[in-house]
Design brief:
The complex is a heterotetramer, with 1 copy of chain A, 1 copy of chain B and 2 copies of chain C.
Chain A (H helix, E strand, L loop, with lengths): L18 H6 L4 H11 L5 H10 L2 H4 L4 H4 L9 E3 L6 E6 L2 E9 L1 H6 L1 H17 L4 E11 L5 H21 L3 E8 L8 E11 L14 E6 L9 H4 L6 H5 L9 H17 L2 E6 L4 H13 L2 E5 L12 H6 L5 E6 L4 H10 L4 E8 L3 E6 L2 E7 L2 H4 L12 H8 L14 H9 L8 H4 L10 E3 L6 E4 L6 E7 L2 H6 L1 H18 L3 E10 L6 H21 L3 E7 L3 E2 L2 E2 L3 E10 L16 E5 L10 H7 L11 H16 L5 E4 L4 H11 L6 E6 L8 H6 L6 E5 L2 H10 L4 E10 L3 E5 L2 E5 L1 H16 L5
Helix pairs in contact in A: 7-8, 7-11, 8-11, 11-14, 17-27, 20-21, 20-23, 21-23, 23-26, 24-27
Chain B lengths: L1 E6 L6 H12 L2 E6 L10 E4 L19 H11 L4 E4 L1 H8 L6 E3 L7 E9 L15 E8 L3 E3 L2 H9 L3 E6 L18 E5 L5 E4 L17 H10 L3
Parallel strand pairs in B: 1-2, 1-3, 3-4, 4-11
Antiparallel strand pairs in B: 5-8, 6-7, 6-9, 9-10, 10-11
Chain C lengths: L1 E11 L6 H12 L5 E16 L2 H16 L5 E10 L1
Antiparallel strand pairs in C: 1-2, 1-3
Classes of the chains: A alpha+beta, B alpha/beta, C alpha+beta.
Bound molecules: adenosine-5'-diphosphate and magnesium ion.
Chain lengths: ~750, ~230, ~80, ~80
């Protein structure tokens, strides 16, 4: 039953509504019919723009929402689940953590530096608009092969953009991942995650309320930046979107820093009821979403919006994606306080509208109405789609390949050669070239920064800390979306547990191709299913996330990449555990069991240039037991270091334990002959899940704790002196890897590849 | 003793300096607002790190004109102790409190890591709790830290023992000069002629807690306690 | 072959936000330069190269701007002058 | 009062290491621009202001350079052009 909507005269100078114009705005026939039905008349140009933005994939999640509804979102400590600017969990003592991840893939493909920088800016605003002070950033990046000059340009630009923005605002970037694979050529993935801290009492939601309350635009002026950016982010990358370059936006981290301080002061002042970032589809989506959440009407006068350029139309003002802007709903009569706080920070505030009783979304230009919709239907009437889905037969065939038949290369007779080859694969190699450009220590809470498993950030005034990590192996998800997504959750949880953290909750970023292609929608559906299963099994609800579809380029879709951002809680700073060996003579214990499986491994990709086989099987109950056992042992004070086995398998994990920290490199002597029935390459480089390499001075206690949890465990060797080599004995014989060789392979690989790149 | 920490628009290590003084050192600290002409009777002024005015144009070039800087300069001319860290060092150079300039890192990249700093002079109000030759582990995090000055200035600095900290720890030899940012003569920190203004790119306030990797910076703050009359 | 010195101006594209220019303009105002209306900060690049004549030198430089010196997404460039060096 | 557009060049003083120029030169070589001998990167600042005439406009701008736009320790500046805007 559509409410009556006033007739709205077309604005002189605006284009006529034609089928071509409708198509240009990305509306299908059905969607346009829905619009006509909602309005009961033909839309104006402004209204068409508003709807095209709000009903774009980016704003409406029209292809993913039905799937996202299946994810677990609840736990006693979840204060805010999906649907807000960020998720929020309680961590005790009246403290809470707000966190969310966001993608800026398409903008970064076009302009890596600004694309990445503005991505960081957006996610920062999502977190501080919840009333939280950002305390840590993470980033999850995917690129094509570094052999390509264009890819090196994208990689260098993205890393600089992430760094410059976060460094300037003064938030440490403490963890992340970077992987390289030809499938991301031309369509890099740039996901940024922000974690903030707040008092539960300071939590504020972006819900417009209170008839008569003024709506205030805060921060930077509105320019013609990124108009239609939201629909831009919902299209395949193509020659056309190359032509859309001027839509790229420029970030201003300096203004962001002022906005951050001003916003937190505003929220603490109690003078406002709601605040939201003007992100994708700028003023349009922020105002419409806040109104919908509060089920109220709003009216906005575009003439009152502070603009950067003369002659901007309502259409442009509504859809501009100029950065560093906020929309605030203030308490009636307290506008003065609001502008006083903004003046203190040299920022501008302008009342541009108000909350009204009438259930309409109305935009005026002065006193003439240029757009009017029946309230929340603008948001709620967006069509939802469940496209056809089936698995690509090629992928099924690849998964079915018996990779054990792939013949070894002659060089592999020397396992040290194989090991160094894998260590120097850019996906495995140290990412110091990246995080050396990030301020990892500002705010003086970073206990463990980049370079181990998860990052550890202490909570001042308590004895506790957060453990943070993003993870996803796109190759696994490509070969088996459901299992691959389960593994992404498990690996993130394992990384968190290795530092002594109890996995609490996740945010996630679903980076997929064009959902209208059945094999892509299949990947999306199965990955979300697997993610949900793993989150249920590990008791880590999903508190929010982001969906980025149409990650394609003329050469095809990227690997389906559901990035998991995990937040864990460390109960006592005494439990903080590092991943590299600490003390000579400590016993090395392997928790979990190796298998022969080489499917989907880095070994196959790097040594044999093959992407094939089934990803490692993952048993969610075993993963849970492993985490419990590990945390018991850590809390019992018997674990000196813990490092999970992931990409590259046990061989890489052991090498990393020896030399990942260049300030303290220990050798080790390891005996794996217990698994003599396994082929060496499976034993050393297979990526069996559910494994952690622990070093301890009390092995019996560790083994007993593992047994209690039903986790297979075995002492496999001892930590050697500083600078000694890594000796490994297998059924195939003994080999000795000098640390210098491992160090060189692991630490110099990316610097060497990036050397020729100018800034 | 009371530390006044200036907050410029874009400062982001003011909080770290505050925590170092209050939590690690156990002294008083107040934030000083850039628009005010009020140092609130502070005994020591800290110009903290960050990106004042976004480091636009040149790091420190705009902040130097903040109202509070007139008072800070006057305070320094009266011999008042000023600790200028990172962006604070850049501001101090721009405002003439210290000689030279801090240019974009030779690598053209922002660099964040723990570096080794050698104490070149223990005979300043900022370093009397160290011994010359001590090698400290202190974080750096900057994109424009390449200390640059003409030879005459450099020679004077060396001659007068005003080079306080130097980057060392070359891959080959731990004592070898080795600058992560291309600074001339590997200079990491200097004092003014009066010895009461210290400018340094590394962050002593981030090195006051072993849990975070080093507490080698704490003695710098303790040195001021020892020497500055209250 | 002759040696030429070519000056190139790289400027933020009009309409695209220039936070640096904006901040500098505000700083100039607070310094009392109230007559200032607008400021834009770009790069001034001087390239010295060998070429047969001034035209080819300029041609080469234009090519460099497109390939490397200017960001085609956010910046405009202009060959400001070609002089024999 | 008239509106003027003044272009200012701010260049790293000769003798002071210009890593950016060096890196750009190398990058140009690796892109095949082998004729490039040398590159220097400075700032190109465009100031728009109101003044009675071109001379006072230039005067004002010179003053801005001395006060803020250029660093006397490491940079030279030059008023490159004054145009009516
Ligand atoms: N883009 C990045 N930004 C910050 N830290 C990163 C980034 N990429 C990798 N790291 C850090 O490098 C270390 C190794 O990363 P990764 O190989 O993903 O670990 P794991 O295999 O245990 O998941 C981690 O500490 C991670 O946080
Ligand atoms: Mg790990």
């Amino acid at each position: 039953m559509s409410q009556p909507v006033h007739a709205v005269e077309p604005r002189s100078g605006d284009p006529k509504i034609t089928p071509a114009l409708i198509a240009e705005h990305g509306l299908t026939h059905d969607e346009y019919d829905k619009l006509l039905d909602m309005l009961g008349r033909e839309p104006t140009f402004t209204e068409l723009g508003v709807v095209s933005a709000l009903w774009s994939e980016h704003c409406s999640y029209k292809h993913s929402r039905p799937l996202l509804r299946t994810l677990p979102t609840e736990a006693p400590y979840v204060l805010q689940g999906p649907g807000e600017n960020a998720g929020v969990i309680s961590i005790g003592d009246g403290l809470a953590v707000a966190f969310k991840i966001e993608s800026h893939n398409h903008p970064s493909a076009v302009e890596p530096y600004q694309g990445a920088a503005t991505g960081v800016g957006g996610i920062l605003r999502d977190v501080f608009t919840m009333g939280a002070r950002p305390i840590a950033m993470l980033n999850s990046l995917r690129f094509g092969s570094l052999d390509s000059a264009r890819v090196r340009y994208l990689f260098a630009g993205v890393v600089k953009g992430v760094g410059d923005y976060g460094n300037c605002v003064g938030i440490p970037t403490v963890a992340g991942e970077v992987a390289f694979d030809p499938s991301y050529e031309g369509n890099p993935l740039v996901n940024a995650m922000c974690v903030g801290l707040l008092h539960e009492t300071e939590l504020i939601r972006a819900v417009a309320q209170g008839v008569g309350n003024p709506i205030i635009a805060v921060g930077a002026r509105t320019g013609r930046d990124g108009i239609n950016g939201a629909s831009f982010a919902s299209e395949d990358l193509s020659a056309e979107s190359e032509a859309k370059r001027p839509r790229v936006q420029v970030g201003d981290p300096f203004t962001e820093k002022l906005l951050l301080e001003a916003s937190l002061e505003l929220i603490r002042s109690g003078a406002i009821v709601a605040i939201q970032d003007m992100g994708a589809a700028g003023l349009t989506s922020s105002s419409a979403e806040m109104a919908a959440r509060g089920d109220v009407g709003v009216t906005i006068d575009t003439l009152k919006v502070p603009v950067r350029e003369a002659g901007m139309t309502p259409y442009e003002i509504l859809l501009s994606e100029s950065q560093e802007r906020m929309l605030v709903v203030a308490k009636q009569g307290r506008e003065g306080e609001v502008s006083a706080i903004l003046e203190k920070w040299d920022l501008t505030a302008a009342v541009i509208g108000e909350v009204i009783a009438e259930p309409v979304y109305r935009v005026t230009e002065g006193d003439r109405v240029v757009a009017e919709f029946p309230g929340i239907r603008l948001v709620t009437d967006c069509p939802m789609y469940t496209p056809e889905a089936y698995e690509s037969p090629e992928v099924a065939a690849l998964r079915a390949t018996d990779v054990s038949l792939i013949a070894e290369r002659p060089e592999e007779r020397d396992p040290v050669w194989t090991l160094t080859q894998i260590l120097s694969s850019p996906t495995i190699a140290a990412k110091t070239w990246v995080h050396r450009q990030y301020d990892t220590t500002v705010r003086t809470n970073t206990v463990i920064g980049p370079g181990g498993d998860a990052a550890v950030v202490r909570i001042r005034g308590t004895d506790r800390a957060l453990a943070l990590k993003t993870d996803c192996n796109g190759r696994y998800v490509y070969l088996d979306p459901r299992v691959g997504a389960q593994i992404a959750v498990c690996e993130a949880a394992r990384n968190v547990a290795c530092t002594g953290g109890r996995p609490m909750a996740i945010t996630n970023n679903l980076n997929f191709g064009n959902p209208k292609r059945p094999e892509v929608y299949f990947q999306l559906r199965e990955a979300v299913r697997g993610m949900g299963e793993a989150c249920r099994a590990l008791g880590t609800p999903v508190t929010g996330g982001n969906v980025s579809l149409y990650n394609e380029n003329p050469t095809g879709a990227v690997y389906p990449t559901p990035v998991v951002g995990m937040v864990g809680l460390i109960d006592s700073l005494a439990h903080v555990t590092r991943s590299h060996f600490q003390e000579e003579h400590d016993t090395i214990v392997l928790l979990g069991e190796p298998t022969a499986s080489l499917g989907a491994s880095e070994y196959l990709a790097r040594i044999h240039d093959r992407v094939a086989g089934a990803p490692p099987v993952v048993d969610l109950n075993d993963e849970r037991a492993l985490i419990e056992a590990l945390l018991d042992a850590i809390r019992g004070g018997v674990v000196r270091s813990a490092h999970d086995c992931s990409d590259g398998g046990l061989g890489v994990a052991l090498a990393e334990c020896c030399m990942m920290d260049r300030n303290a490199q220990h050798g080790a002597t390891v005996d794996l002959t217990h698994w003599r029935e396994l082929p060496d390459r499976g034993l050393l480089f297979g990526e069996a899940q559910g494994r952690v390499v622990v070093s301890t001075n009390m092995p019996d206690t560790v083994l007993a704790i593992a047994a209690k949890h039903g986790v297979p465990a075995r002492a496999i060797g001892r930590v050697g002196p500083v600078g000694a080599p890594l000796h490994i004995t297998t059924a195939g014989g003994v080999f000795t890897a000098p640390l210098a060789r491992l160090d060189e392979a692991y630490h110099e690989a990316i610097p060497r590849l990036m050397a020729p790149t100018a800034v | 003793m009371k530390f006044g920490i200036v907050t410029f628009p874009g400062s982001n290590c003011d909080y770290d300096a505050y925590q170092a003084v209050v939590e690690a050192l156990g002294e008083d600290a107040v934030y000083l607002w850039h628009k005010d002409h009020d140092l609130q009777q502070s005994d020591v002024i800290i110009l903290p790190g960050g990106f004042s005015y976004g480091d636009y144009l040149r790091a420190g070039a705009i902040a130097r004109f903040s109202p509070v800087m007139q008072d800070v300069v006057a305070f320094a001319k009266r011999g008042g102790p000023v600790l200028a860290i990172c962006n604070g060092f850049q501001i101090a150079c721009e405002s003439g409190l210290l000689p030279g300039a801090l240019l974009r890192n030779a690598s053209l990249k922002f660099v964040c890591e723990h570096v080794r700093l050698r104490v070149e002079s223990a005979d300043t109000m900022f370093t009397n709790r160290y011994t010359a030759g001590d090698v400290l582990r202190v974080p750096i995090a900057h994109g424009e830290g390449r200390f640059t000055a003409d030879d005459e200035t450099l020679n004077t600095l060396e001659g007068d023992g005003r080079v306080v900290f130097r980057y060392v720890g070359g891959p080959a030899d731990a004592d070898e000069w080795w600058s992560p940012n291309g600074s001339m003569r590997a200079i990491a920190g200097i004092v003014n002629e009066g010895g009461n203004v210290l400018g340094m790119m590394p962050h002593p306030e981030r090195a006051v807690d072993a849990l975070l990797g080093s507490d080698d910076g704490l003695r710098l703050f303790e040195s001021m306690l020892a020497r500055v009359a209250v | 072959m002759n040696r030429f010195r070519i000056a190139v101006h790289i400027t933020p594209r009009r309409g695209i936000l220039d936070p640096q220019g904006k901040t500098v303009a505000e700083a100039l105002h607070s310094l009392g330069f109230t007559a200032v209306r607008d400021v834009h900060v770009g790069r001034h690049i001087v390239v010295e190269l060998d070429a047969a004549n001034a035209d080819t030198a300029a041609e080469l430089t234009r090519d460099m701007c497109q390939k490397l010196l200017a960001n085609p997404v956010t910046e405009d460039f202009e060959i400001a002058g070609v002089a024999a060096a």
